[in-house]
Design a protein that fits this description.
With 311 residues, this protein is an alpha/beta fold. It is built from 13 helices and six strands. Strands 4-3-6-5 form a four-stranded mixed beta sheet. Helix 7 packs antiparallel against helix 8, helix 7 packs across helix 13 and helix 8 packs across helix 13. The chain binds fe (ii) ion. The site of fe (ii) ion has 6 residues, from helix 6 and helix 9.
Length: 311
């Protein structure tokens, strides 16, 4: 990576950051967080996003998330430094945020989780459009995901889930039919991605009293509007998490989610990952329902490549 002085004053705004464009064109997926490049506007955007979520977090977020926020000691007025985040997080669960330049193929993403690394976008959305964001940014990744990673039960769930990607690659490694290998990996990966979506990204939890639902999914925790909608709207279908449904349910990313799944505890979520793993071994993920949002070629290729490496 060229010296950051070249990019001084250009900011780290999503889709408008020359530093990131250069990293991508150099093929660099894992990068540093060049903190000095954040502009005054970037910090102001973080401050606005962070301030306006406070009330909604207090009202709707899962207690483990709120505990995580306390542990991480974010500065409300500045984009967090990943090294500070890691200083507070690593002693709790071993998880670390790892800066990336953008898209991380699915296998690599899951592999990072299995090693307690969380690929983290370092750009921040444009302050002109706080709400609509087609891609992740540092507010989604750090304020939405990372507080949950301070919880030991949730962290163990992520690690076990990430390891499922290795299991998938191992299972097809000896297959001689390349097309069948690709088809099977696509199906398994579809199942894994759907599980991630409906739990880690958009999960809800019922509390012990059974009366109240809280939010632990990062897509909801980083959305000012959807966190309210997910719990309050009568139009949202909310059902107890059923694994056979989740792995066969396709999803759309460009509007509020009409269907959400509820777990009772993070221990239950961990058990669901164990079941997912058992189902994978038994071949039950080899033919999940295709959806319009099937895997990108880069995602499928990442799994194929992994399955071609020696054990
Ligand atoms: Fe996410």
């Amino acid at each position: 990576m060229a010296t950051t002085a070249l990019y001084a004053g250009m900011g780290l705004t999503t889709t408008k950051a020359p530093y990131i464009e250069q990293a991508v064109s150099n093929g660099e997926m894992y990068i540093e967080q060049p903190y000095e490049l954040y502009s005054t506007d970037n910090h102001a955007t973080w401050q606005r996003l962070y301030a306006r979520m406070q009330e909604n977090w207090g009202r709707y977020a899962n207690q483990r998330f709120l505990d995580g926020l306390e542990t991480l000691c974010f500065e409300p007025t500045h984009v967090p430094r990943l090294e500070d985040v890691n200083r507070f997080m690593a002693p709790r669960t071993g998880f670390r945020a790892k800066a990336v330049s953008g898209f991380v193929p699915a296998f690599d993403f899951f592999d990072c989780l299995s090693r307690r690394e969380f690929p983290t976008t370092i750009t921040i959305r444009d302050g002109q459009s706080l709400d609509y964001l087609p891609e992740p940014d540092i507010f989604h990744d750090i304020a939405g995901h990372v507080p949950m990673h301070t919880d030991p039960a949730f962290a163990e769930t992520l690690v076990r889930f990430g390891a499922c990607a290795h299991l998938a690659a191992d299972m097809v490694r000896d297959m001689s039919d390349r097309e069948e290998r690709r088809r099977r990996l696509s199906s398994i990966q579809n199942a894994l991605q759907r599980f991630f979506w409906f739990t880690v990204e958009f999960g809800l939890m019922r509390d012990a009293s059974g009366q109240r639902v809280t939010v632990y999914g990062s897509g909801l925790l980083s959305s000012f509007g959807e966190i309210v909608h997910s719990v309050e709207s009568p139009t949202v279908q909310r059902y107890p998490l059923q694994l056979e449904w989740v792995i066969n349910q396709h999803f759309e990313i460009d509007h509020y989610q009409p269907l959400l799944f509820i777990v009772d505890s993070f221990d239950q979520l961990y058990e669901q990952v164990a079941t997912l793993e058992a189902w994978m071994k038994a071949g039950k993920l080899d033919h999940v329902t295709p959806g319009w949002r099937d895997m990108s070629q880069a995602d499928v290729e990442s799994f194929l490549e992994a399955s071609l490496r020696p054990r």
